Amino acid sequence: MVLPRRKEVLVSAAIDEINNLFTKYDLPSKVLSDIHYRVTCCSDEAYIKQQLRYLKNLVEAGHIPERSKIAKICE
Fold first, then answer.
1. In this structure, are residues 55 and 18 in contact, taking their beta carbons and an 8 Å threshold?
2. Quick check: 58 and 17 in contact, CB under 8 A?
């Protein structure tokens, strides 16, 4: 799932970083759909950055595994 880019540069940078996390980590579908919904409904820069912080906190807390680690486990 890729989020649509916004015209504003700062928001676009946050969206790009969220998309990178979507690609790098195996996020639960509930998290993906929730963040996608929130970001597409609200284009406020602070709100989008809040969603980015939420994702980063999940990753830093160790709740979300990297996709490459999952592939190694499955081999």
1. yes
2. no
In this structure, is residue 49 part of a structural domain? yes
Find, among 75, 4, 17, the residue nearest to 43 by Cα: 4
This prediction has a pTM of: 0.75
Residue with the bigger pLDDT between 11 and 60: it is 60
Q: Indicate if the pLDDT at residue 8 is higher than 80.
A: no
Compute φ and ψ for 64, nearest 5 degrees. -125, 120
Domain range spanning residue 68? 9-74
Asked whether residue 20 is assigned to any structural domain, the reply reads yes
Indicate whether 2 belongs to any domain: no
Question: Domain tally for the chain?
Answer: 1
Residue 50 domain-assigned?
A: yes
State pLDDT tens for residues 27-65: 999 999 999 999 888 888 899 999 999 999 999 999 898
